Amino acid sequence: MEWETVIGLEIHAQLATRSKIFSGAPTAYGAEPNTQACAIDLGLPGVLPVLNREAVRMAVKFGLAIGAEIAPVSVFARKNYFYPDLPKGYQISQYDLPVVARGKLSINVDGKALTIGITRAHLEEDAGKSLHEDFHGYTGIDLNRAGTPLLEIVSEPDLRSAKEAVAYMKKLHALVRYLEICDGNMQEGSFRCDANVSVRPKGQTKFGTRAEIKNLNSFRFVEKAINHEIARQIEILEGGGEVIQETRLYDSVKDETRSMRSKEEANDYRYFPDPDLLPLEISSGFIEEVKATLPELPDAKRDRFKAQYGLSDYDAEVLTASREMADFYETVVREAAGDPKLCANWVMVELSGLLNKDGLEITASKIDAAGLASLVRRIADATISGKIAKQVLETMWNEGGSADDIIERQGLKQITDTGAIESIIDQIIAANPEQLAQYRAGKDKLFGFFVGQAMKATQGKANPAQLNELLKKKLQ
Amino acid sequence: MHRKTLAELAAGLERREFSSVELTQAHLARIERLDPALNSFITTTPEIALAQARAADERLAKGEAGPLTGIPIAQKDIFCTKGVRTSCGSRMLDSFVSPYDACVVERFNAAGAVMLGKLNMDEFAMGSSNETSYYGPVKNPWNTATVPGGSSGGSAAAVAARLVPGATGTDTGGSIRQPAAFCGITGLKPTYGRVSRWGMIAFASSLDQAGPMARTAEDCAIMLQTMAGFDERDSTCVDRPVPDYRAALGNDLDGLRIGLPKEFFGEGLDPAIAGLIHAAVDEYRRLGAIVREISLPNMHLSVPAYYVVAPAECSSNLARFDGVRFGHRCENPTDLADLYTRSRGEGFGAEVKRRILIGTYALSAGYYDAYYLKAQKIRRLISEDFRRAFEEVDVIMGPTAPSVAFEFGAKSADPIAMYLSDIYTIAVNLAGLPGMSIPVGFSNGLPVGMQIIGGYFSEDRLLNVAHRYQQATDWHTRTPAGIAD
């Protein structure tokens, strides 16, 4: 039987506010345990929450960016359950009435454009952390994270493969960073994902029973966990069994998912509107104010790059994958005042290669946009060849310095003096009479031999176009 | 000095008839002498009190005093007080020393008031008789065989026994008004949102409201002036100017429209109380008021709706008492579930557990619509009843409670009977309105209170209406025998 996979993702994006969603405590990551938690975060008797306006602004910004409806009135609810790192015994979240509803996101998978529905995005607070190591059999509680603002973004079950799920997640990841509402740091848990996965016989409209896989904190794990889960469910169904609705945890070491709790064991969260917080009213004036701060969004930027710089779909897609990359590229183009395609190549291929090798983000590049632009300028004005430029780039990366200094110091300037090139060619022809005879007898392949000899003699500095032209003339 | 009202004491301090230190010492001595028989204080804070009194005397000397500077008061033990045990009447918080002050406490401190201590109360404010306190019941100063009412029973008893001229209370379903009535004092539950709930340990967040308890309306006006006002730390606190309550006290009542809801005078009301309420209303007629019967048709739904909403909120509010970060923790827990169940099982008393169970049930999947949502709808119907009533009348009057103070144990075996003692007060909380109780006479030697209910933010009018009655009568000046000296 042929099976179809149905996936929906719930993504938790930590909002990049300075203070927590319901208290004034800072949200800084990595501080000493329990130093970023105030009385409100600790859930002391008598404390009350006050909503952070900035978190609302960010949620609205996101809603506008995905073309969603911004609820004029949304409600904070309490999700009640006991856990030691949940100080109040409930999480303040949104349930019936989320702040953002019915948006969409377009993704591109294998050249196919897909539109993925986003059911809702709601504001909520994060819990603290339970630390099970180093406490001699006890569990430590760190409440620094408690009360950190989260935007939970819930997709429609519109995804049909792990690949689509990852493409959606990457697109969302880029978007929240474009919007500057989330730092996207997956290692620190700023952007994490739960996946709802089910399979059904191809052609069936009814959904199969789903399993929810919790806490996937890298793109690679999302893909592996989903693929593993699909295989597990198909195996059960093909064996005549039934998938049970449950929550599963992905073990990245063993590359498998295992059961965490079944539907029957699931908590009854007893949601009800939080009486400490009034309904959140968002005026059209506030929405307009936020709208005015929206940056150019990834899709619009990609289309503009294609039109303005004449880039291919692929190049435009890669260069707009992050706002930082796009900004870097545009600075290079502006500074180099030249060929946008050449600039694209040097950003996407050569510089990205060095970044990947050192595991650095574009923002941490050892060569800034102006530096790369000056190198590109030297290629464009034929001071150096592309091949020499790679050498210069490596030196800039490893030792620092400007392109011009390196070219000067290492004498890498291209030989463009026709007379000089001609005299080198003359010497080579004179030194290789045999090869000359063979070439003239019709062995065209030997043209490369003469180019090689000339480049060797000039340490690669001969202008390749001029060299070709002159060689052809002289060899005739 | 203890015979004087808060307003009179303030005048005495201003005239230097006595110092705040003297006043404070006198009250501390009374507490030491009389409170063992009453049990109205959980904690006394003589050192803090004397330090505050000395500071107040300095302020008075410099001419920087306000009407509360140097005045002894006491806080219901539901308000967090920095560096002082804040127990909420529960074993759960027997060891809890708050690291911060409630807004109400801050404001009294800033006004220069002197805190004598923390007052006894029903556990987590859940009770109508003060019998649920972990620290034992408070005795009614009028008859120590009877309850003082609850949950602010310690506050009411301490004021009635002249241990303190004014005390704070909180009212979720009648917890200021009913004990005020049982103890023969004046108490005001302000409009929901008038006083900040910051630092007031939550029972039912959408109903809880702090208010003053004192001997006279004038004293309540002085206290409310300090307590009321916007606080950005409480999202449900209303940003609205606070009127000058004392200035409004003298307004005459000519043409005041009083409504008597027929539902407040039906079955279940002690006829002697009905008689005293009608007599008090007659007094208002003499003061120029116009009286008419009105109807609040959904009143009979208020107790059932309340006993869904309040327990639902409490079941969630009390989840933080889990033995993990503060409060009672059981000995040697074997695992997490054991830590939770034993810490909570040992820390909470029976009434608190009953309400947590009711509330948990009411919010459960499959029951939410039938209970919680329906109760919220009833709440709207009740608010609507009041809204209509206030189109025709300025204030509503009726009994505060269906009976006078009952004997210990009389209702503790029957929770429903206990819950019905708040039958006239609960609707006011459900609607978020302000309500007062003032003494209007005695039945079997026990005080009877009359409730006065007004429209939203009409505290100034309620205080004015109560004050004019107190100018014309002397019920509020009566003092329990044996403690008068």
Automatic annotation (TrEMBL), chain B:
Highest taxon, organism lineage: Bacteria
Catalytic residues (UniProt): 76 (charge relay system), 151 (charge relay system), 175 (acyl-ester intermediate)
InterPro entries referenced in this protein's UniProt entry, alphabetically: Amidase (IPR000120), Amidase_CS (IPR020556), Amidase_dom (IPR023631), AS_sf (IPR036928), GatA (IPR004412)
GO cellular component annotations of the record: glutamyl-tRNA(Gln) amidotransferase complex
Gene3D superfamilies membership: Amidase signature (AS) domain
Domain Amidase: 22-463
Catalytic reaction equation(s): L-glutamyl-tRNA(Gln) + L-glutamine + ATP + H2O = L-glutaminyl-tRNA(Gln) + L-glutamate + ADP + phosphate + H(+)
Gene Ontology biological process terms in this record: translation
GO MF terms held by the record: ATP binding; glutaminyl-tRNA synthase (glutamine-hydrolyzing) activity
PROSITE patterns xrefs: AMIDASES (PS00571)
Pfam families found in the cross-reference section: Amidase (PF01425)
The UniProt record lists the keyword Ligase: yes
Assigned keywords, A-Z: ATP-binding, Ligase, Nucleotide-binding, Protein biosynthesis
Keyword Secreted applies: no
Enzyme Commission identifier(s): 6.3.5.7
Oligomer and partners: Heterotrimer of A, B and C subunits.
Role according to the record: Allows the formation of correctly charged Gln-tRNA(Gln) through the transamidation of misacylated Glu-tRNA(Gln) in organisms which lack glutaminyl-tRNA synthetase. The reaction takes place in the presence of glutamine and ATP through an activated gamma-phospho-Glu-tRNA(Gln).
Protein family according to the UniProt entry: Belongs to the amidase family. GatA subfamily.
Protein name: Glutamyl-tRNA(Gln) amidotransferase subunit A
Gene: gatA
